[in-house]
Amino acid sequence: MQQPLAYRMRPTKIEDIVGQQDLVGPGKIISRMVKAKMLSSMILYGPPGTGKTSIASAIAGSTKYAFRVLNAATDTKKDLQIVAEEAKMSGTVVLLLDEIHRLDKTKQDFLLPLLESGSIILIGATTENPYININPAIRSRAQIFEVHPLTPDDIKLAVKRALKDKANGLGNYPVQLSATALDFLARATNGDLRSSLNGLELAVKSTEPDKKSGDIHITQTIIEECLQKKALSADKNGDAHYDVISAFQKSIRGSDVDAALHYAGRLIESGDLISLIRRLLVIAYEDIGLANPSACERTVQAVNAAKQLGLPEARIPLANVIIELCLSPKSNSAMTAIDNALKDVRAGNYGEIPLHLKDAHYKGAKKLGRGVTYQYPHDFPNDWVKQQYLPDKIKDAEYYYPKDNGKFESAFKVQYFKLRQSSRH
């Protein structure tokens, strides 16, 4: 029986890994390990289908070490012993141990000396937080790396590779994948490449070729059926996807809790967690901002929790913060302030930095007048002293216009105008 497409398309060298470039990209930690052939045991944790097995397979392929896969929950100590014997006979073995958080003490005690000696390079894979769910004895002997859901662009790249690959992919099939089907396939699986590839394979092998051209036309409707996900946030030209995101932000900005939850529900049901959490971060700082800075912090916390949990549980912390952002006081003054400053900069409306603010940490700076008259605010009462910071040309420029929406920015407003009056008048 032929293995699933996702299995067949696993990379055999580091350069072929899709996504996780912060770990496997040129000059990054795992890439450096492989290049130097100085592998150490590691634990990869993150959501399903994000490349944990692919990274292990590519490490083994790039270093030419034997590669074995076991499951900590279902495979026995005897299975580990077989791998250990192979390592003694043929040298180092790279062992991918799936669900490593379920490793019992008997298997752990057997593995520890093998890890110490380097005869087995352990790559543990888990969806659980290793700092909480993995025994410290194993954890202390392995580096811990987090893998993240793949982006839609990552998944599109992998899908296109699979469609071209004649040896392991679907290159021998005359597939015509529509742009909307590709876009939906890349977004609806929430960064899970395994689901995307296996859904694609089902679509290709279950669709009858066109009687005239012989081509297999894969539409968005076919992909929806094979993934069992409906395009609630995307239509034939993709506009509705962005319409939902726009409506989501505008509902929070307008303080309508029910509408915001409705549009969030559409994004969640379509599996588009990535777009939802990115937009939430934008909303927190663009629309709530200085009116409630702590809400911005809690949004970051909720987003991080959602990434750790994945769907469907991710909906819970996100619902909490969506409701809070809706009911929070609003202010866009910080965004407006930086945009005002950028407008001046882009128009060339800026002058020479005052001499007393210029860098004075080099020989000869004093002769040039750099930093000579600078006054260190911490040497003065209340850690403040009157001095000019803006260039002469724009010394009276105003970019920030505080609002009174919420106790935080109201306090900022009082302080801002107090300092402005003291320093510029």
From TrEMBL:
Database matches in InterPro entries: AAA+_ATPase, AAA_assoc_2, AAA_ATPase_RarA/MGS1/WRNIP1, ATPase_AAA_core, DNA_pol3_clamp-load_cplx_C, MgsA_C, P-loop_NTPase
Keywords linked to the UniProt accession: ATP-binding, Nucleotide-binding
Keyword check for ATP-binding: yes
Top-level division of the source organism's lineage: Bacteria
SUPFAM superfamilies in the cross-refs: P-loop containing nucleoside triphosphate hydrolases (SSF52540), post-AAA+ oligomerization domain-like (SSF48019)
Ranges for domain AAA+ ATPase: 38-150
Pfam families tied to this protein: AAA, AAA_assoc_2, MgsA_C
Single GO molecular function: ATP binding
Keyword GTP-binding part of the UniProt annotation: no
UniProt GO BP: DNA synthesis involved in DNA repair; DNA-templated DNA replication
Family affiliation: Belongs to the AAA ATPase family. RarA/MGS1/WRNIP1 subfamily.
PANTHER family per record: ATPASE WRNIP1 (PTHR13779:SF7), WERNER HELICASE-INTERACTING PROTEIN 1 FAMILY MEMBER (PTHR13779)
Protein name: Replication-associated recombination protein A
Organism listed in the record: Lentilactobacillus diolivorans DSM 14421
